[in-house]
Known about the structure:
Helices cover about 80% and strands about 0% of the residues. It has 9 helices and no strands.
Amino acid sequence: MVEALLSPRQFFQALQERRPNLTAPFLIVLAASTLATLGNLLLVRLLPPSTPGGFALQLLLGLVGGVVGGIVFWGLGGLIIRLLAGPDSRAWEVYGWGNVPGLLVGLVLLPIGALFPITAELPPLPPLNDTEAFRAWQRTYQAAVASAPTTRVVQGLGLVSLAWSLWIIGTGLRVLVPQRAWLATLGVAAASLAFTLWGILGQG
């Protein structure tokens, strides 16, 4: 895993000689998504819960969402590479190993969320049947989260992780399918940036 982070060319050259194995790449994406979700939940644990049922239910739903999100991102990321780089790209392996920086950032987010939670004076969640009050509360909640310095740190780490991941994916594809590496890397980059910007703007 350290070699994939720091010496991806050597890592994928060695991988090229081995039989395809999707277990480790899948678990890496799953762990990265779940840890990122848990870290973000720790960041907002001192704020009023944004869902009925309290923080425990919010935590459960968030972790389920992290697992499902990891599966979806692994599937979509691998599919983009497979379509653009062809059957020799070992698409889902490359995408999975490319998420090692996300796993590292997820581990960093846990102590950040535990030690520097976001605080703000917010009223309790209004009744869901009061649509106008609920939407106003959501806007206030999102503004409080977006304006917190810790949120900017987390967003910065996410962008660094994304750039690092794209470097690993691009390097791996240049080893496995050099003639289609740039096209597939740009495809993954476009999709990843779209999701990242959507997440950042959603907090604004």
